[in-house]
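INFO  loader      accepted 1 record
INFO  loader      residues=78
INFO  predictor   begin
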Amino acid sequence: MRLLIRDLVMEEIIKIRHGNLEYLLKKYESGANLGRLTGITSNYLSHVKCGRRNLGDRLARKIETHLGLPNNWMDRKN
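INFO  predictor   done
INFO  writer      dumping tokens
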């Protein structure tokens, strides 16, 4: 039961992260612009956006750090 709840929470966090990535892509107008600021290639960001790559903890924290966002910003609805 505990594993099921954790999995459901993680699924929700992944959905929130994807929504926040969409927001950042719009805010910075392109994957290229966002990539320059975060050190992540626009190609990789494109793969994350379409679900070919995972937006895991490490990538979420990297985006937050490079953009000066609060800790765990990517994990909360913004």
